[in-house]
Amino acid sequence: MNLRERLAQLNRLQRSRTFKIIATIVIGVLAIAAMGAYLVEHQRSAVPMIEDAALEGIRPPEPPKDATLTQEQQLELAAAKSRYEAAKATQQTINDILRRKADPTYVLVFIAAFAGISACVIWINLGLTGLVLLAGGAIIVWPLRAFGLSLGDEGRRLVDSSTFIAALGVLAFCFFVLMELVRLLLSASHPVTAIARNVINEAVRMKVSLVFIVLLMFMLAALPGLLDSDTQLRYRVQSFLQYGTGGSFWIIALLVLFLGVGSVAFEQRDRVIWQTMTKPVAAWQYLLGKWLGVVTVAAVLLAVSSTGVFLFVEYLRNQTASGESKPYVATGQAISEDRLVLETQILSARTAVGFQMPTLPPEDFQKAVDSRLAQLQASDPVEFQDTPVVRRIVEEQIYDDMKAAYLNIGPGQERMFTFTGLDEVQRQNLPLTLRYKVSIGADDPRETARVTFGMINTQPRVQEVPLGQMMSIPISPASIQDGKLELVILNGDAYRRMEGDPGWANNGSMAVAPDGIQLSFPIGSYRANFIRVVVVLWLKLALLAMIAVVSATFLSFSVASMVAFGTFLVAESAGFLNTSLETFAAEDAQGKIVLWKAAIRVVAVPIGKIFGGYADLKPTASLVDGQIVDWLSMSLAGTAILIICAALYAAGVFIFKNRELATYSGQ
């Protein structure tokens, strides 16, 4: 029996029902055994929690009921209670982090999911094929990795190469399996699903799409090897999330654009569409099938890339952070700063609240408005008449001036910022993070400023911060009183001031940006947030797919590609465009209209408005920063995208129905 006959025999074996049933049972048994072994090992290496007994040494004593305390004793007791509450909040935060490590749910779900995928591979007639590929990959990767490890530091390249080959093989096989699954899901004998299946087949035949698929696989496989192991763990995780998620989206977006345009334009150019449209296929079915096929390919690639990113982030999460002797075990302290920031600020789903601006009493504010208006009328009584429109403009100017003055802190001065609505944070003792950005002068990158942050129940904290950069510090929820946190910022070093140091204050006035001081706290899970981010990315890809398909209904491939790609770039940069338009005025210093500036605004403003909602969707930035993508925002964004897709689809159907396809040459 030759090799071809042997392979045919093995193929018949993996397609037999008996083989599938036996293999599925074996996989189930192995999965259960793996879960049991993991639970035993997990229990053996569990990280102990911080017990309440550790706080007994600082618990304030309860004074006798009938005792009368002096003012000094009352202050000492209040200070002791504050220290105890702060320590208790810190203990809860640390235990929450350790509890995530102790939770075996994630690994058990992963084992179950892997077993389920393996069963799917078997039932789509790829069981032995996958086993052979796995064995072949192991034969290549295992000796290469073992030889590299035996060489020590000199063999690091071989170890990285073996990891790259293994990751590339796993990603390619997962892509192949998912493509087979979606073909089965679209196997119904309907014009829409038949056209969608044809698009899926084109995705691996077209050279332009195949290039992007291979590029995506290579990028994801190579990215883990580019991370510097000497960098703090939180920065490695952020870098991988940024480049893994953002890079995957851009590569898939380019694939979606070129695949959507090419699938429609090439069929018209090569007259293949004649064979399709002469069958009982309506224009709406043809375009819907093309769009469905493109978004299905995008969904497969996004599922493969996002799963790879998620799993590697979880792998990184369980590596040793800076200041730890082993994962989650700090050296000489309860938890390392690197681990604390990673778990509470990055691998989290946080929401942010801003401070409350103090306001003038209504009568004082109106006096200020009247005074400002009188000054303007004295300079130009015709231009500044006392009308509702002019009065509203003056009110906005006064409010902006008040806000700018409040956010400007002179050398040695201090300012109080009040955050409200923190009752639930106080009740649950949630970890808080203060994010701030300060500017002095031109924000010389070589200079730093010493800033003091003061709150009740905590010691003043002095930070030496770079200028013009967003920074963050953890805040104890013990500083919240009655759902309110009062933060005092001093432009200088409070401890040097107490020591009588003449250089305790910074040299220049410190300006705080309106959005440069926020208080954030977790309200959800990072893993659930990751899923929502992936859904939003897919919605954006669905919109790009519709733009590409509709563009190709009336344009050639090259022109439609330029239109689709240009629209994508404009949509992605609309946020920057809107920000720039806020300071780009059409008038000069004398108030005269500048024609070329006015022309730019006439074109740019509508573009910014149209694509503003798309640009506001920044799921990757939110994920990297640990900010939550809530269900409400995702639903509103999804609804808006679907409405736009429906409008584009209706326009595409109208254009396509009125095309003379029989005489179109594609030129």
Q: What are the main properties of this structure?
A:
five-stranded antiparallel β-sheet; globular; alpha+beta; 667 residues
What this model shows, in words?
The protein is an alpha+beta fold and 667 residues long. The chain folds into four domains: 1-44 and 75-123, no CATH class; 129-184; 186-351 and 526-667, no CATH class; 362-525, Jelly Rolls (Sandwich), CATH 2.60.120. Helices cover 62% and strands 10% of the residues. The chain is built from 23 helices and eleven strands. A hairpin with a 2-residue loop joins strand 1 (324-326) and strand 2. 29% of the residues are buried. The model has no long low-confidence stretch (mean pLDDT 80).
Q: Tell me the β content.
A: 5-15%
Query: How many separate helices?
Result: 23
Structural class, judged by helices and strands?
alpha+beta
Uncertain spans, ≥5 residues at pLDDT below 50?
A: none
Number of strands: 11
Itemize the secondary structure elements and their pairings.
Layout: H1 3-15, H2 17-44, H3 71-102, H4 105-123, H5 127-150, H6 156-185, H7 191-203, H8 207-222, H9 233-269, H10 273-277, H11 283-317, E1 324-326, E2 329-330, H12 337-346, E3 349-354, H13 362-379, H14 388-406, E4 408-409, E5 414-419, H15 423-428, E6 432-439, E7 448-454, E8 461-466, E9 471-475, E10 485-490, H16 494-498, E11 510-524, H17 526-551, H18 557-572, H19 574-581, H20 595-610, H21 612-616, H22 619-625, H23 631-657
Antiparallel strand pairs: 1-2, 3-11, 4-11, 5-10, 6-9, 6-11, 7-8, 7-10
Helix pairs in contact: 2-4, 5-6, 6-8, 6-11, 7-11, 8-9, 8-11, 9-11, 9-12, 9-17, 9-18, 9-22, 11-17, 11-23, 13-14, 17-18, 17-22, 17-23, 19-20
